[in-house]
Amino acid sequence: MSKRENVTADILKQTIAILKAEGSSGVTMRQVANKTGITLSNLQYYFPDRTKLFQAMCEFFFRQCEKTILSELSTINVNDRASTNGFIKKLLEMLIVDGINDYDHSIFRELWALMLRDKELAETVHRFYKNYANWLVQLISQFTPCPEKVVSLLIPYADGYEIMGADLPLERNAIVEMLSEIISQMTRKK
């Protein structure tokens, strides 16, 4: 990676860490600059304002999610039904039990709150969700004849689970089993 790419990645990682620890109100340009070890003007060279910073962070986060999922996919035999069910179950575990990467979905709760007041950020997040959903449809199409249905179930459930999952009567692992069975039934009906 070039120096610019390294600095950009560090800025985004620090922004995510601050957002996760302190919430959106805790993320200031000055705080990100200090945590990254650069000047405020240097940070503004990369990201002129908070909206641009959050937009880039959102893209960075989705790319990290994709990398993690692709890493899991590399261990799966697409032609083996048990392996396919294993991939869907592993994907559910990543989305619901473990979190898809080190940052978990708490940053999305913060982004959703910010979206209410920032139309430009809202458009960016919606665009990334749409791209992410399309990417998952393409990926999951290797495993199921109805990838649109699977993705339409997975994304809102997984992200919504982060908001209220602790209040549901079933444990996370039981929910993974339930959703895995639902998806398995959906794919058998086609």
Automatic annotation (TrEMBL):
- DNA-binding interval(s): 28-47
- Swiss-Prot/TrEMBL keywords: DNA-binding
Signal sequence, renumbered to the chain: none
The UniProt record lists the keyword DNA-binding: yes
Segments forming domain HTH tetR-type: 5-65
Which superkingdom? Bacteria
In alphabetical order, the GO MF annotations are: DNA binding
Q: Does the keyword Magnesium apply?
A: no
Q: What SUPFAM superfamilies does the database record attribute to this sequence?
A: Homeodomain-like (SSF46689)
Q: Where are the transmembrane segments?
A: none
- The identity of this protein, by name, is Regulatory protein TetR
